[in-house]
TrEMBL record, chain A:
Coiled coil: none annotated. This is Urea ABC transporter ATP-binding protein UrtD. The keyword Nucleotide-binding applies. Keywords: ATP-binding, Nucleotide-binding, Transport. NCBIfam families: urea_trans_UrtD (TIGR03411). It comes from Paralimibaculum aggregatum. It holds the Pfam family ABC_tran.
TrEMBL record, chain B:
Gene3D superfamilies: Leucine-rich Repeat Variant. Its main location: membrane. It holds the Pfam family BPD_transp_2. NCBIfam families: urea_trans_UrtB. It is found in: Cell membrane. The chain crosses the membrane at residues 246-273, 305-325, 337-355, 388-405, 432-452, 472-496, 503-521. It comes from the Bacteria. Belongs to the binding-protein-dependent transport system permease family. LivHM subfamily. Keywords: Amino-acid transport, Cell membrane, Membrane, Transmembrane, Transmembrane helix, Transport. It is a multi-pass membrane protein. This is Urea ABC transporter permease subunit UrtB.
UniProtKB/TrEMBL annotation, chain C:
It comes from the Bacteria. Pfam families: BPD_transp_2. It comes from Paralimibaculum aggregatum. The chain crosses the membrane at residues 12-32, 38-57, 64-86, 127-150, 157-175, 205-222, 253-273, 293-317, 329-350. This is Urea ABC transporter permease subunit UrtC. The gene is urtC. It is a multi-pass membrane protein. Coiled coil: none annotated. The keyword Cell cycle does not apply. It is found in: Cell membrane. NCBIfam families: urea_trans_UrtC.
Length: 249, 538, 373
């Protein structure tokens, strides 16, 4: 896996089709450790399917998906990949609605995952402290004992990001974190993500151009399952192909 | 063996004697009849042979009467009559024309006696006569009779008949009969081996027993040829047995498909299992019963078309109940498939108990019209008409449904909702309306299945329960939202079931099929014909 | 500061009630004079004992359905298997007192002209072995079945349908005489258990107490599981299975654990049921029985352990009363319960009327919570 040297996430010539429809078509992408990357593209460009492939939900028809220079992700399932350190936030905020906010974070904390481990687990002081920290980061201290179902849409987004933080993964895949947020919330989210990057490798899929601009990172434009353009936001915005297939509409 | 040989030799002697005694007498049946009482048994045998020689049609009945000992000669006038005894009264008939002459006293006529030797001569003469009969059916019957008895005395008659016979089927029958006779005659080994080869082409229990008998022959070549032929016959029987199993499987498959296909479309479109589906089938069967009862009371002449009347009614009755279930219950449980499953189970209990209260818990008699009764054969395959009609009916329903789904706007909407409900709604499809329609259509087909099932199964309130698990299996095996899945699933399961039955017994076969499906679903959790893609995975 | 999560107020109340019942019911039968106001006839003791085993069975179904979203339509099979394991022991204990007087072979085997005991009947003359099998056979079947099903992610309606197929297949198999479990008639004509006459009042009282104890222990066990962090994971799996996977939980492992545990509980319930009703036959495997268990849970309140107990007792009490009163009407009522509870009482009786919330079990919204994905 020489070719993946120096990368945290490495996709090469990945394709997958559903009943003849090519959702991903020869996609290649590389993220360096600590890099934050924004991925944009029109509906059906294959953004979510790409995340499905990285997280083991969908198996590609062919192509390489290498994590941390050496691990072939196509050979592992979601659970394995999550435990290796790839966290994911869904497009539609997905939290455990019948658990409290604190419990959602508790279940996300890195560490105990085995059946018998959790059967006997007692919450430790370190765990409790970490939960408090995250609650503060995502500004949900007041809601700690409320059921996640009772949160607003934006708060659920934050909680899910908090759950990602609790996992302490090497790579965070964040699907549309700003959807349903107010402008202020959107900017706060961008700030949060920027803080996370550096320690973690982050891939953000987003439609909101203001948000992408606020992130101020390298942008990859996907279209019809492959990379259309890559570079700074200004650079890709000027690309005529991008304008034609995405921005122009 | 020896005795038969002696008898045969004696008969041949009689033939020769007859030939020399009556060389050129081209006598009519009437004159020969008059000669019958004269002389001893040998002379009488000669006359019998001469009678056969006339080829006269009336001779058959005459000789049969003689063999039975029914021919008597009137003491007064010497007329020969056939006497039928009934109790103490004796009635005389003309032996040739069959015309009644009248009642006679038992002492008025004396019996024309026959002994065993004469009876054999009569049998030979009869064989010759019937084998040469202008009536095709009679010739075939004669051949069958020789095949059965394997009477070596008939060989010559058969040879003679074969020379003039042109009908291919009759010729085959003659050759087979001759072969059977040859095996019993003192003939060269090669001829017997050829005879076995001839018989081996045929496939019935009769021939099987003849050849089985030949395996114990004193002549090793004959025994070997017989054993060999027996093997080949066994193979042919196994092959036909397989064909028969396929047929049974197709028949079971057609019933399963009818029962499952409605389930499959509502499962496909709405993602819910209708546990009351079996009861809708049962309602269809009871509709058939009710229609037949009404016809019996008011218009017995319509009985032959009762099913044609019942089918649309059953569709409507079950379909209406289906729409009622959807609008009344399932609609409110949308997106909660497990709750829907429980609620429809409750409905199934209510429907069952309602029917039980109205019609009683016992089986109801639903009649088969004439065109659904009986059976016919192809080779060794027996096909009953009702099963054949049900297969055709199932295929027709399937084709019609396919047409509705592929060619009508309603079908297009159903397929749209199956594939992506939310997108379909966004396109302006009223999914609630589609749900009701789908449910109603599925239920209506269940009603049709009930009409079909009423022809082959007991109509009782439990009818639905006995098919429901199997139809679930068909749906699960075939895959959701795909009619071809239900089609392939039903026929595969039907055939596999019927092939397992001879080895494992009916119950164990079913258990094995269920275990197979449970294992199969591990490998393909979404069935044979699963839809793929992101939309259906959630 | 915080109440003991394992034994909250409701749990304590319930266990106290159970202990009270375990004392009062036998006393009312054994000590109170027949004819007095406090006297409880013997049949009622057996009847209440049967309810307790049903409650334990409902508890086992609630554990998987209420807390993990696994709707098993074949849990009656585990109950019946536990029952058969116990029934086999009781058959062996008849010994030479059977109709045919064979010291080893049960009557039905002598009738079928069998010469020796099939291998799978070996060891059932020992009570401890039978008890072990009561746990191992249902547990083993659940483990194998669950391993196959959960590994390939058979979920939702599909899982329900194949669990139904499982119990249906077992029913067909047990109906066969060749299986060696008494075919149609099942196992019956038991004499005694551990040397106590099954028809004596004292034995019945003892079985009632044993059933109450089993229910109490089953409840505590279920409580222990559902209040643990693993219990929270189970609820997470129920509500958002994919999310749980992406957090790194091996979902199939959790499902397998709770499914197997639940099957063993059902097996114990079956084992206690058989000596109290005196018969076990293949009808116990019928799919209809298994679905009925689910409705007990739904009536009481899914995702509330006490709801399952309450539902089992309510529905079966109603069944006993109604079938004694107008037999035909029971099926109608049962059918209506299915429809009305799912439509109008999705949280069950306890969920709708219970005022105290206990979040630690994650159950407050259990009955109405929908999986988010």
């Amino acid at each position: 896996m020489e070719f993946a040297r120096g990368s945290m996430l490495y996709l090469d010539d990945v394709s997958v089709s559903f009943d003849g429809f090519k959702a991903i078509n020869g996609l290649s992408l590389m993220l360096a450790p600590g890099e934050m990357r924004a991925v944009i593209g029109p509906n059906g460009a294959g953004k979510t399917t790409m995340m499905d492939i990285i997280t083991g939900k969908t198996r590609p028809d062919h192509g390489d998906v290498i994590f941390d220079q050496s691990i072939d992700l196509t050979r592992h399932d979601e659970t394995d990949i999550a435990r290796m350190g790839i966290g994911r936030k869904f497009q539609k905020p997905t939290v455990f609605e019948t658990h409290t906010v604190a419990d959602n974070l508790l279940l996300s904390l890195a560490g105990k995952r085995g059946v018998f481990e959790t059967l006997l687990a007692q919450i430790t002081g370190a765990e409790a402290r970490r939960i408090e920290e995250i609650l503060e980061t995502i500004r949900l201290e007041e809601r700690r004992d409320d059921l996640a179902a009772d949160l607003s849409h934006g708060q659920k987004q934050w909680l899910e990001i908090g759950m990602l933080l609790a996992q302490d993964p090497k790579v965070l895949l964040v699907d549309e974190p700003a959807a349903g947020m107010t402008d202020a919330e959107t900017m706060a989210t961008a700030d949060l993500l920027k803080r996370i990057a550096g320690e973690h490798t982050v891939m953000v899929v987003e439609h909101d151009m203001e948000f992408v601009r606020a992130l101020g990172v390298k942008v990859t434009v996907l279209n019809e399952g492959s990379v259309l353009a890559e570079g700074s936001l200004d650079h890709v915005s000027a690309d005529p192909h991008v304008i034609e297939s995405y921005l122009g509409r | 063996m020896l005795l038969r040989f002696l008898l045969a030799a004696a008969t041949i002697a009689v033939f020769i004697a007859a030939g020399s005694l009556l060389p050129a007498r081209a006598a009519s049946l009437e004159t020969l009849l008059a000669e019958l009482p004269e002389g001893g048994y040998d002379e009488r045998a000669a006359v019998v042979t001469a009678i056969a020689g006339t080829g006269d049609d009336r001779a058959v009945a005459l000789l049969e009467a003689l063999a039975e000992g029914d021919l008597r000669q009137m003491k007064d006038g010497g007329q020969i009559v056939r006497v039928v005894r009934e109790g103490r009264t004796h009635t005389a008939f003309d032996p040739l024309t069959g015309a009644e002459i009248g009642e006679i006293s038992s002492r008025a006529a004396s019996k024309i006696r026959v002994n065993n030797k004469l009876r054999r001569a009569i049998a030979a003469a009869l064989g010759q006569l019937t084998l040469a009969s202008p009536d095709r059916a009679r010739r075939l019957a004669a051949a069958a009779s020789v095949l059965k008895t394997g009477d070596p005395e008939q060989i010559e008659a058969l040879d003679a008949a074969l020379e003039t016979e042109t009908d291919p089927e009759v010729r085959t029958a003659f050759m087979d009969a001759r072969a059977a006779a040859v095996l019993n005659a003192a003939r060269p080994t090669a001829e017997k081996v050829a005879a076995i080869a001839q018989l081996a082409g045929r496939n019935d229990p009769q021939v099987l027993s003849i050849i089985t008998a030949a395996t114990t022959s004193d002549e090793p070549a004959v025994a070997a040829a017989a054993a060999d032929a027996l093997d080949r016959i066994e193979q042919a029987r196994a092959a036909w047995g397989a064909v028969q199993n396929v047929w049974y499987g197709l028949s079971l498959g057609s019933v399963l498909m009818l029962a499952a296909i409605g389930l499959a479309i509502s499962f496909g479109v709405m993602g819910v299992i209708n546990m009351a589906h079996g009861e809708l089938v049962m309602l269809g069967a009871y509709t058939t019963f009710a229609v037949q009862e009404l016809i019996r009371s008011f218009a017995p002449g319509l009985f032959e078309v009762s099913l044609l009347i019942a089918a649309p009614l059953a569709f409507l009755v079950a379909g209406a109940v289906g729409v009622g279930i959807e609008r009344g219950v399932c609609r409110y449980l949308h997106g909660r498939p497990l709750e829907t499953l429980l609620a429809t189970w409750g409905i199934s209990l209510i429907l069952q108990q309602t029917v039980r209260s109205i019609f009683g818990p016992t089986n109801q008699q639903v009649g088969n019209p004439d065109w659904m009764s009986g059976a016919f054969e192809i080779g060794q395959l027996t096909i009953t008409w009702n099963r054949l009609w049900i297969l055709l009916f199932a295929l027709a329903v399937f084709a019609l449904l396919l047409l509705i789904l592929k060619r009508t706007p309603a079908g297009l909407q159903m397929r749209a909702v199956t594939q992506n409900r939310r997108m379909a709604e966004a396109m302006g499809i009223r999914s609630g309306w589609v749900d009701a329609l789908t449910f109603g259509l599925g239920a209506g087909i269940a009603g049709l299945a009930g009409v079909a099932l009423s022809q082959i199964d007991n109509v009782s309130p439990n009818l639905g329960q006995s098919y429901i698990v199997d139809s679930f299996m068909v749906v699960v095996f075939g895959g959701v939202g795909n009619l071809w899945g239900a089609f392939a699933g039903a026929f595969t399961l039907g055939i596999v079931n019927k092939f397992l039955e001879p080895y494992a017994g009916a119950v164990l076969a079913k258990v094995l099929v269920l275990v197979f499906i449970i294992l199969f679903i591990q490998r393909r959790p979404r069935g044979l014909f699963a839809l793929k893609g992101r939309a259906v995975e959630s | 500061m915080k109440a003991d999560p394992l034994l909250d107020l409701k749990s304590k109340l319930f266990l106290a009630l159970l202990v009270a019942a375990a004392i009062v019911v036998p006393m009312a039968n054994l000590v109170a004079a027949p004819g007095s106001d406090f006297y409880l006839p013997s049949f009622a003791v057996a009847l209440f004992g049967k309810y307790l085993t049903y409650a334990l069975l409902a508890l086992s179904v609630d554990l998987i359905w209420g807390y993990c979203g696994i709707l098993s339509l074949g849990h009656g099979a585990f109950f019946a298997l536990g029952g058969y394991a116990m029934g086999m022991h009781l058959m062996r204990e008849i010994g030479p007192r059977g109709v045919y007087g064979d010291p080893v072979l049960p009557d039905f085997m002598v009738f079928l002209d069998w010469k020796e005991l099939p291998w799978f009947w070996w060891g059932f003359d020992q009570f401890w072995f039978a008890c072990l099998m009561v746990l191992l056979v249902p547990g083993g079947l659940a483990f194998v079945f669950g391993w196959l099903a959960f590994r390939s992610r058979v979920t939702g309606v599909y899982l329900s349908i194949i669990t139904q197929a499982m119990t249906y297949a077992l029913m067909l198999a047990f109906f066969r005489n060749d299986m060696g479990f008494g075919g149609n008639n099942g196992l019956t004509d038991f004499r005694d258990v551990l040397g106590f006459d099954l028809r004596s009042d004292a034995t019945r009282a003892g079985l009632f107490v044993a059933s109450a104890a089993a229910l109490g222990l089953g409840y505590l066990l279920a409580r222990r599981v559902t209040t643990s962090r693993a219990g929270k994971v189970l609820v997470s799996v129920r509500d958002a299975e994919a999310r749980a996977r992406f957090l790194g939980y091996r979902v199939e492992g959790y499902k397998l654990m709770v499914f197997t545990l639940s099957a063993m509980m059902a097996g114990v319930a079956g084992a206690l049921y058989v000596p109290q009703v005196g018969i076990i036959n293949p009808g116990e495997f019928s799919p209809a029985n298994s679905i009925e268990i689910v409705i007990w849970v739904a009536v009481g309140g899914r995702g509330l352990l006490l709801g399952a107990v309450l539902g089992a007792i309510l529905v079966n009490g109603a069944k006993t009363l109604l079938t004694g009163w107008v037999p035909e009407i029971w099926i109608f009522v049962l059918g209506l319960i299915f429809v009305l509870v799912t439509l109008f009482l999705p949280k069950g009786v306890l969920g709708a009327f219970g005022t105290l919330s206990w979040r630690s079990g994650g159950a407050r919204r259990g009955a109405s919570a929908q999986p988010a994905e």
